[in-house]
């Protein structure tokens, strides 16, 4: 039996250490997110059983096809080059549409009971998108002038930006949902080449698919009655008709030039017009992509705009980039990022002239609604071809080709960046850049360009500034202007790419040494004087409380860089109000420090180019007031509709190191109609710069005394009747931490690991002492409560199974902390600590189970003594029921208290994902139950107190060291939580911040009340074991009122002498000696 017991212990230890450590990988707490579909493309066999039919329908294509020579490599690039994604399509007359479209969209089921709702009509119209891929090239069916190919087309209508552009092989199908329709068609046909239109590559194919059934007797405006059903239909298969009479002809230009880049095609039905399967002709447009080789052969057309070069467009003289990385910068900056279109605030003319979006068409409703302010209008630079050549060591030039695409405010940004169709919202451009001037001059051609470039009537000038100020925050700036001057067809249109992250400057311009020009220092000084109050509080702050400032470092730039990091903010905030009791609405803020003093870039980019060794920077003992003021520049972003007027601010001013305040002047990009902006003559380059901002930071120490939050105050200096004035904004951030405090947080994990080891070691010592104690006091062993020991065992078992932290509560947000400090958590030191904690928890669990075994065996032996009186043996049934009733009532009270304050706290949802792929979202009551389990463990002595009353004991079953020591172990985490500094952990998930402290067991209130209650329980156990039950009952008697029942004689026959009890147990009245020996082995 000893060997069996030892094997079980070893197996359990290895299993929990091995499999227990790996369990969190398959069961981890995650945030709610949309599921990601993973699809594997299975092998597909392509058939060419309709080639004869294809040749019959493609006679016109074959008649103009040229011979394909065996050496022609273009045949081997068909799959790579004969394809496009997210092109445009239209139907000619629309009497027989190819597919229906539902103008409803599905809402979040958690937010509304409505399943469908009408899409707003103010925005852009739904997009007609199409993608095509050649999936197979069959050289076995190659003829003199054609090659057999198979293709796949996805054509659809979308109002939400979702479109299937993945190109997976799948069965032909039609899918429809609210705001989205999509049709997949498989084709087989031929590939040919022609000399028409300067050389073309043509595919002519026949397709088959499942078309949606259309009732031809209905009016053309409502040909699909089943779409307009009031109930959802997405889980029902729409009525479909199989159609294999679809002809597709696509024409790709052989050469990729300014005037030859458009892909054009037509898809038409070969069915008669009377057929349900007939649809009107579909015209397709797209363009060659980045995989095609561009030929710069349009010098004559480019000279219309850029001869002589550079073009003098009156742009303000600012330093611009003239280095040899122009192509890399323009491609990197514009990759899926949009230019912001600036309003025509300088225009002075008719409304239809000043509100026009440059060379782009003015028929878009969303753009016209901006009235020349162009709010939300984006400009994308696509298919960039840049060829830069170095003339000598200092001079270089580049030839550039690209397509400018305008996007209305309501269009999905990702879809707009990925679209490839050419039309009235695109301008193809080609031009030259020279390092001598730093100007990129291009000619612009709207829509599809003819071979002569007759429509190329726009000039585009683009620059990359490397000097910045509060009014100049563009990392790329450009203009469109009309080549026709009598009269010009549109007012010059300006666009820019603004700084989104400071890292953009350091990534793209680390070798160009960009600079910042402070222009608002005088106004910021006046703002400081108006708001600098002289009071006792200010004197205390200046003399006693340290704020972020320049500190000793290895170099002056390093000290500036550290200060810049401390002053940056990325956190949540709420309105700063002292009167309201309602929970304020939350917003997100981000304040990036662009420059501090002379530092306008990360220090590493300087040191990497610096060869001279800098002297260490040391702060002085005393500074003058002016020396403690630093020039700073920043940008502030605030989310939320209520903050639209101040959603993006460019800031510049002074930082006072004495009181931790920044006094800033702000500029914002105002968007109103061009008339309003034109009449506002106090704009600075189109910016509203009459804004004052004050940012107050918390001190770097004394976090027990001062709330570690920053406050932001924003006010407009305009008059009340000014249309550009906005209401003052005051925000208070969530708790923030500085760099040194974050370093303390990172080391906190190691400190808590050491504390866990110490407390677990103390717990093991206490349990071991109890084991030695019961060996000496065998008469008291049956009176130890198994419920109490079970609560302790569960407390040790849970960390081994769920990977929760033992003793010290592991907050839910720690998972985010671990993922953010990946390198730290994977260090060998933390692995050693984790394994030591696991081993100690396992040891404590096994020792507790040994105590349970001892108590159980002692009660079994009592039941076997003669005469048998099982009713006199202590039983935990009543103890278990009483404990459960007390804790259930307590848990219900907690739920009631939480429900009363539910409006004052956020509803937390936790989700657990299992390795099988399923997930479970914890509800509010489950979260509270999880916290209440910890409370049950803290009150582990409650079952022993109840059992002492029920059994009316006159002995001492628990050793003082045991119950006092375990109580201390359970209370140490609360003491630690109470005394440690309330530093915000920057790695915590923010939904767990600012929870009402009164509603959490591990809050400051809980850290006081729980230990006091646990101490009271330990004191009760002490009194119960020191006094006999009869004496305790008399002491609690008040007149005729007895708080405890009278003493019972139920357990009187149990022997009180230890030696007699041992002799009686050893005799085994009803058992043989062999059975007793077997019991001992167990």
TrEMBL record:
Domain DUF2921: 54-282, 302-492, 533-729
Signal peptide positions (record): 1-22
Enzyme class: transferase
Membrane-spanning ranges: 753-774, 781-801, 835-852, 879-902
Domain SWEET-like: 741-1028
Domain of life (superkingdom): Eukaryota
Membrane protein topology class: Multi-pass membrane protein
Catalytic activity field: S-ubiquitinyl-[E2 ubiquitin-conjugating enzyme]-L-cysteine + [acceptor protein]-L-lysine = [E2 ubiquitin-conjugating enzyme]-L-cysteine + N(6)-ubiquitinyl-[acceptor protein]-L-lysine
Pathway involvement of the protein, from the record: Protein modification; protein ubiquitination
Keywords: Membrane, Signal, Transferase, Transmembrane, Transmembrane helix, Ubl conjugation pathway
Subcellular localization: Endomembrane system
Enzyme Commission number(s) from the entry: 2.3.2.27
GO molecular function terms noted in the UniProt entry: ubiquitin protein ligase activity
Main location group: membrane
One GO cellular component term: endomembrane system
Protein name, UniProt field: RING-type E3 ubiquitin transferase
Species this chain originates from: Morus notabilis
Lineage: Eukaryota, Viridiplantae, Streptophyta, Embryophyta, Tracheophyta
